[in-house]
Amino acid sequence: MNKILIVAQKEFRDGTRNRWTGAITVIFILMSLGLAYFGSATAGVLGFSSLESTLVSLASLCVMLIPLIALMLAYNCFVGELEQGTLLLLMTYPLSNAQLLLGKFSGQAAIITLASVLGFGLPAIIICLISDVDVASVLIAFGQFIILASLLGWVFIALAYIISISVAEKSKAAGLALIVWFLFVLVFDLVLMAILVASEGNINETLVPFLLWVNPTDVFRILVYTIIGAESYSGVLQIAENGADGTFYLFSVMLLWVALPLACSWWIFNKKELSE
Amino acid sequence: MNDIAVELTDVCKYYPNVNALHPLNMSVKAGEVLGLFGHNGAGKSTLMKLILGVLKPSGGEVRALGHCLRSNQAHDYRTLFGYLPENVSFYEHLTGREVLHYLAKLKGHNKAQADNLLDEVNLSHASDRAVKTYSKGMRQRLGLAQAFLGQPKLLILDEPTVGLDPVATQDFYLTVDRLKSGGCAVILCSHVLPGVEHHIDRAMILSKGRKLALGPLAELRAKANLPIEVSVSGLSRSDIENQVNILGKPIDWLPSAAGQQNPQNRFTTSAEHKLDILKTLSSADNLQDLHIKLPSLEDLYRFYLSDFNSAKGV
């Protein structure tokens, strides 16, 4: 336990030192303030208008950015140490693979979490201070959003670890990370749509909504819609309306999306042989 | 029982395309320094990783400090391991002190000990600079410092003196000698041979994954029976020949070094005749200087390699 903490501390300090934490926080602040103020510009109004529309736009932006940020933060985590020889050294230390993995994960998860707390929390406070809104509902909604955004980040950190542990070169890891991002964020929804349209309703109807669970970014979006109580879902998410939208289930699916990739990384890590 | 620090029984390691290590038996006692020699690809690194438990042997059993190793467990006795990998570059953006503090914490030692070690390897003046500004020798010293953390009982060092200046090398051997007298088993791996021979108890020569020789240097010398080189000043060739012929011992002349003030006559003879010849020559009146050169570790290394190659040719 103690060892996990030592590794986590180092990862976290690395993150603050090379300004990852700061950069992510600034991006989040700009995103949320920008969307809050200019989100309803198309309707001819400036300034904070509706909590719902702000969070919906924020969610669609985060769904693109958070996976990218998390992947970029974490893809280097193991392959970088492999290249500089410290992974081999650490494996001769009294430190198990699981401890190293969990330590690194805790540290980097803390970076993403801190960035979302600051990056979405500060704008929420600013909104409360300068507009005439129901403070409690804004804070609760943003609070929940912070938890979801962090969770989404954790999922992609864990996914990045699978890549980082499996490959032997940094550049390959970076390429694969981009492909993963592309698949989950852009390709998946398109393919799912295409399948649904092409099948002309021949797919078992109760099964369809659960196809969305295969993509953590979709789970994240459904969860955001659920917490703000949005009336209608947009795009491919409409299919989630038939039974795949219980908050508890979705939350568990998200946690599973953190745990499974971590377990998978651990399994690969144990099988891996360090033979230059 | 606790006397043996490392024991390998029929340990081998095969990769799909290469045989990294053929079945091998060896052991290292506590307080013993083993020199491991062989050129690139001879299997030295593989052997070291097997001993450390980072690699799993394809067959056989490795025991280190009385334990059978599995690489993915956080065995506490690993606190007693010290390892210096080849070409380790550490965390570039951290300072030397931060790197050592982190590694010390992972091994369960306090910062004070890490700071002492930084002093010991003469790195304290640079300890608050980022590692990326370090020279090759400074990195090497940082690597040694982490290997020495916490009085290890098993020290495995891959090319420990590469990049070190003569003073640092001397300091390094002093530390090794001190740990050794404290009962630490040391495996030194090197292809830089000169200088290391006074600090090792036994040598092992590896080539292409096979053990060519293993034993104390004196024993390896005796077995190889390499000629000993004798240089004599003040006596002419015929003087020497006369003396030696009385004894009836064969010698082979070497071309004498030209352009020296005191022309030396150099010849080689076998180890068993050394004493008789030296006795005779040293009683000669005109003798000015007498110098003998034992076969170096490098000569032994060459001998065992060519011995192995010719044996394979047959």
Explain this structure to me?
The complex is a heterodimer of chains A (276) and B (314). With 276 residues, chain A is mainly α. Chain A has one domain. Chain A is built from eleven helices and no strands. Chain B is an alpha/beta fold. Chain B has nine helices and 14 strands. In chain B, helix 2 packs across helix 3. The longest helix of chain B is centred in the C-terminal third of the chain and has 17 residues. The model of chain B has no long low-confidence stretch (mean pLDDT 83). Chains A and B meet through helix 1, helix 5 and helix 6 of A and helix 1 and helix 2 of B.
Helix content of chain B: 25-40%
In whole angstroms, how far apart are the ends of chain B? 42 Å
- Helix and strand element order of chain A: HHHHHHHHHHH
Strand order of the largest sheet of chain B: 6-7-8-3-9-10
**How does the helix and strand content of chain A classify structurally?**
mainly alpha
Tell me the CATH architecture of the largest domain in chain B. Answer: 3-Layer(aba) Sandwich
Q: Which of globular, elongated, flat, extended, rod-shaped describes the shape of chain A? A: globular
The total strand number of chain B stands at 14
Number of strands of chain A: 0
Instruction: Kindly give the count of domains of chain A.
Output: 1
Structural key phrases:
heterodimer; A: 276 residues; mainly alpha; B: 314 residues; alpha/beta; Alpha-Beta Plaits; six-stranded mixed beta sheet; four-stranded antiparallel beta sheet
Write the layout of secondary structure elements.
The complex is a heterodimer of chains A (276) and B (314).
Chain A: H1 2-17, H2 20-38, H3 51-74, H4 79-84, H5 86-91, H6 97-130, H7 135-166, H8 170-199, H9 208-211, H10 216-228, H11 247-271
Chain B: E1 4-14, E2 19-29, E3 33-37, H1 44-52, E4 59-64, E5 67-68, E6 81-84, H2 96-107, H3 111-120, H4 136-147, E7 154-158, H5 166-181, E8 185-190, E9 202-207, E10 210-216, H6 217-224, E11 228-233, H7 237-247, E12 252-254, E13 264-269, H8 274-282, E14 289-293, H9 297-313
